[in-house]
Amino acid sequence: METYLETKEQEMYELLERIVNTDSGTYDKEGVDTVGDILIEKFEEIGMDVKVHYEEKLGNHLEIKASRDHDPKILIIAHMDTVFPKGEAEKRPFKVIGDKAFGPGVNDEKASHVQVLYALKALKEAGSDAYKNVHIIFNSDEEIGSPTSKPLIKQVAENKQYSLVVECSRPNGGLVTERKGVGQFTLDVKGKSAHSGVDPERGRSAIEEISHKIIKLQKLNNYDEGISVNVGLVQGGTSTNTIPSVARADIDVRFNNEQQAADIVKKITEISQEEHVSGTVTKLKGDISRPPMLKTSETEQLMNVIHEAADDLGITIREVSSGGGSDASFTASEGIPTVDGMGPMGEFSHSEKEEYTDLKTFPQFTALLAKTIEKLSV
């Protein structure tokens, strides 16, 4: 398989360039579906069955396996959406500098699309039926918590024995066996507007009210315990000479376990219900979007198989934990042994210029995925 993939490197790079140069921000349905169309074409070319799950507002999801009749035991998950706006690919298209490929979403996670395709091609070329043992989901909304694809992932995950999620592997072969849980919340404060010079006493400042709440929210951070609460976006007011009648704060929460999640939700709710500026009203929206991905003994057994595959290929891998969220949390919470970071090696996802995929390890980690699939199918 390694030799076959080495002969296909140029093909892989050309397909990667095509996908990276196609904008596919989460809310760009046309762009995400264009990436999906490319993948449909490529997977159908190798005889795979592709089922499209149509979405009205966000991109469609793809479900791929050898045939509709097959009951594969390995679930592979990748996402087609990125965090970048329309026009980003034209502004900074795919380019290669040395051994690194750059471009919007190259590492998160368009290189993974190519990797999954060529892992299956390598298995077929080697005469292995292991490609029939994979059930692939390419979803369109991972970057916003997978609101429409989560039910599909959970449905497909039923009766699966393993889940391999192809977010990028970390430098030095880091594969993810633990992830924090994620919550997203919004505070909307309604006050009363008034002229700040003529009759300010008539006003009720929504910005003043939300400021009190923000300070209390930030104090919920406990990095030693793995808890982070970040008010990352604040909006409010209409002009400097108007007492602001509206204000909004968007909150990101990370935690290690379900008890921490329950405690944080309770505290955020209590803070939202406190009134500091008389006459203001606060509404809290949001919830826990992803449970934590916990390492289990079954995960350890799955990692042992991946280590064996890596040893066969002469690849060094290691286990890491991550504060970032991914769809791996959904399958792990269903009790399915799950390893994330099975994608090509790279760094700096979501960054405007630094994000890259390491091309010199691209064939090796594609071979690692193929070899792992083969070992899990014995």
UniProtKB/TrEMBL annotation:
InterPro entries: ArgE/DapE_CS (IPR001261), Bact_exopeptidase_dim_dom (IPR036264), Pept_M20_glutamate_carboxypep (IPR017150), Peptidase_M20 (IPR002933), Peptidase_M20_dimer (IPR011650), Peptidase_M20A (IPR050072)
Tagged with keyword Hydrolase: yes
Protein name: M20 family metallopeptidase
The protein's required cofactors: Zn(2+)
Keywords, ordered alphabetically: Hydrolase, Metal-binding, Zinc
Peptidase M20 dimerisation domain ranges (all copies): 177-278
Short name of one Pfam family: Peptidase_M20
Domain of life: Bacteria
Coiled-coil ranges per UniProt: none
